[in-house]
């Protein structure tokens, strides 16, 4: 069975889609991973998961989900769209996806990990767990509001030049928008009004389902403390901290990433 594309919502002229990748192994429990990409909410696309085939080969369905980007869409509305995406899955897992069960894991990388964390606070009874790679659950970290030394190494993208990129849809140029935002420390200004609903408090973390969390100890983009707090606060947590100074260590396949995903697959089978 090949991948299938579905529209789950229209936001004005913007069509929000998802891609369903069915499992490639026999499984008694047809569990689905709902996946959210990273990109600081300013760029990125849903089909960027390098290890998707390994997940499918080990009995997992994967549903990769679009969401609108900031600053054209405020973060509160981005979250609302993804809530609609989860609702679409829970409504149509039988008739559209031909599945027997609606059990799912939320999986997000970087900003997608934040989105998966926020949605986990909805306490879906069908959610078996949370998978978070180098993500976060609030914006209290100083590095999010100060110019980034790491991104400062790149050629500067002045704010006025960054503004010209906003209308570029989902093109690769939008990375420059994020680059500028981190260089000048004005990233949060792109996300709209920040409300208490956009933060996961420690008491909420204690109510999370089982979590699988990975972060590099010297991540230059997202502070590792965010994942350490998640691992410490959740009741059932598997936490892997990699001694490295990279952010998305799994952007391309490599021995270190291979090992992490093998451990993830073992964890998925345990909690499925």
UniProtKB/TrEMBL annotation:
Name of the protein described by the UniProt record: Alpha/beta hydrolase fold-3 domain-containing protein
- Any one Pfam family here would be Abhydrolase_3
Domain Alpha/beta hydrolase fold-3: where? 33-249
Top-rank taxon of the source lineage equals: Bacteria
Q: In the UniProt record, does the keyword Plastid occur?
A: no
User: Sorted alphabetically, which keywords does the UniProt record give?
Assistant: Hydrolase
Q: Which organism is it from?
A: Candidatus Enterococcus ferrettii
Phylogenetic classification of the source organism: Bacteria, Bacillati, Bacillota, Bacilli, Lactobacillales
């Amino acid at each position: 069975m090949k991948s299938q594309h579905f529209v789950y919502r229209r936001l004005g002229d913007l069509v929000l889609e998802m891609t369903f990748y069915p499992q490639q192994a026999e499984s008694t429990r047809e569990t689905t991973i709902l996946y959210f990409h990273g990109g600081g909410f300013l760029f990125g696309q849903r089909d960027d998961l390098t290890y998707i085939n390994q997940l499918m080969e080990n009995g997992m369905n994967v549903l990769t989900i679009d969401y609108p980007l900031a600053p054209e869409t405020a973060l509160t509305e981005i979250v609302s769209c993804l809530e609609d995406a989860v609702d679409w899955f829970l409504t149509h897992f039988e008739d559209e996806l031909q599945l027997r069960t609606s059990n799912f894991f939320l999986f997000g990388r970087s900003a997608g990990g934040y989105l998966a964390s926020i949605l986990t606070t909805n306490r879906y009874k069908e959610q078996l767990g949370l998978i978070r790679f180098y993500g976060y659950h609030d914006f209290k970290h100083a590095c999010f509001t100060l110019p980034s030394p790491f991104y400062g190494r790149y050629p500067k993208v002045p704010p006025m030049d960054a503004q010209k990129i906003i209308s570029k849809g989902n093109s690769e140029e939008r990375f420059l928008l994020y680059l500028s935002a981190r260089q000048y420390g004005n990233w949060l200004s792109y996300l709209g009004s920040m409300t208490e609903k956009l933060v996961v408090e420690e008491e909420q973390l204690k109510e999370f389902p089982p979590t699988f969390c990975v972060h590099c100890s010297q991540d230059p983009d997202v502070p590792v403390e965010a994942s350490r707090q998640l691992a410490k606060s959740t009741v059932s947590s598997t936490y892997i901290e990699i001694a490295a100074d990279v952010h998305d260590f799994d952007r391309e396949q490599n021995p270190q990433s291979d090992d992490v995903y093998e451990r993830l697959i073992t964890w998925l089978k345990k909690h499925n």
